[in-house]
Design goal:
Layout: E1 3-4, H1 8-12, H2 20-33, H3 42-61, H4 64-74, E2 82-83, H5 111-117, E3 145-151, H6 153-158, E4 160-171, E5 180-181, E6 184-185, E7 194-205, E8 214-217, E9 233-239, E10 245-248, E11 251-258, H7 260-265, E12 267-271, E13 278-282, E14 291-294, E15 300-301, E16 304-305, E17 308-314, H8 322-340
Parallel strand pairs: 3-9, 11-17
Antiparallel strand pairs: 1-2, 4-7, 5-6, 8-9, 10-11, 12-13, 14-17, 15-16
Helix pairs in contact: 2-3
Length: 342
């Protein structure tokens, strides 16, 4: 049996060396363009054929094993040439849908697909080598999904609950994810097997969560197949920058402004922490850049909490009065005398 060779790369409009991301992007763009619901009359029939070709091409090129086999076997063929399976492909039984309906092959895929891969694929039943019959597939757990959750430092420090809304891709309720409804493509999902939706989830944030850690939401991932459980959703934490605090491991660093006379003479100053402001003694003669430790004012951890560190910044007044400026001049003259030994 000979069939016309199909160039799946040409169908999706990508180069043979295209990445998985490029293939997925091209597929989504074409699936939107040729969704049959966006066409009418003769154009609708053309769109139906296009979406079948696009789905078939994506079924192969998005699967590493199928793509590798296609690349090995198809290197010497051109689009439209008669194709016969090489000797090492063995003998195949070819199953077609009863009644035809223009959807020959594996659940809507072409005879070329059947010949090349022995049938099967995401848009129909499973087909195997001659003598083995249809493959009996058991329950398959849904795909785990990862997304990013942005937290303020206060949210990460205290923990609690956060309500998030997600865009989702659910298994199409009409075709059950096959992309085929009866003897034709599924008009509800355009043959993609999935529909768009949205849902709101409540995420429990553990106190002291860190940058890059993941929060698991069991059963909130991809849909399972054949009775399989849903996958999980993993929320990867990204901490937003804070205007006052800098996180360093388990510790928090914050700036404390001292006027020159406070640094020279020492003073009681107010220091910000995530639990609210606290009083701290700045010793006389403290230098800019020195750090004063505040025990237990850092991030929560398994064995307690980290520390806070107040980094000293000397604040030079920009709005001195004439009297203050004269005092600084007098001080400068006194320091000259000290340095000269007078």
């Amino acid at each position: 049996m000979a069939v016309a060779f199909q160039d799946y790369y040409k169908t999706l409009g990508v180069e043979r060396g295209a990445t998985e991301k490029e293939i997925k992007t091209a597929y989504r763009k074409l699936a939107r363009k040729w969704h049959p619901d966006l066409h009418a009359g003769d154009d609708k029939q053309q769109a139906e054929e296009k979406i079948k070709q696009i789905n078939e091409a994506y079924e192969v090129l998005s699967d590493q094993e199928k793509r590798a086999k296609y690349d090995r076997m198809g290197a010497n063929w051109r689009d439209g040439q008669d194709f016969r399976p090489p000797p090492d492909m063995g003998d195949f039984n070819f199953y077609t849908n009863a009644g035809g309906g223009g959807m020959g092959g594996a659940g809507g895929f072409s005879d070329f697909f059947e010949m090349f891969f022995g049938g099967g694929g995401g848009a129909g039943g499973h087909f195997t080598r001659a003598g083995r019959g249809p493959r009996q597939g058991g329950p398959v757990k849904g795909q785990d999904v990862e997304a990013e959750i942005e937290l303020t430092l206060e949210e990460a420090y205290r923990g609690g609950e956060k309500h998030l809304q997600f865009s989702t891709r659910e298994v199409c309720p009409t075709c059950g994810g096959s992309g085929v409804d009866g003897q034709s493509f599924c008009s509800r999902c355009g043959g993609t097997g999935a529909t768009a939706g949205a849902k709101t989830l409540t995420v429990k944030i553990p106190a002291g969560v860190r940058e890059g850690s993941r929060i698991r939401l069991k059963g909130q991932g991809g849909e399972g197949y054949a009775g399989g459980h849903k996958g999980d959703l993993y929320m990867k934490v990204h901490l937003l920058p804070h205007r006052q605090f800098k996180l360093q491991g388990d510790d928090l660093e914050m700036e404390v402004l001292l006027r020159p006379e406070q640094a020279v003479l020492g003073d009681q100053v107010t220091v910000p922490t995530l639990d609210g402001p606290v009083k701290m003694k700045a010793p006389a003669g403290i230098k800019a850049g020195q750090r004063l430790r505040l025990r237990g004012k850092g991030m929560p951890r398994k064995d307690g909490r980290g520390d806070g560190f107040a980094r000293i910044v000397i604040d030079i007044p920009a709005d001195l009065t004439e009297a203050e400026e004269n005092l600084y001049r007098q001080l400068a003259e006194l320091r000259k005398g000290v340095s000269s030994g007078e």
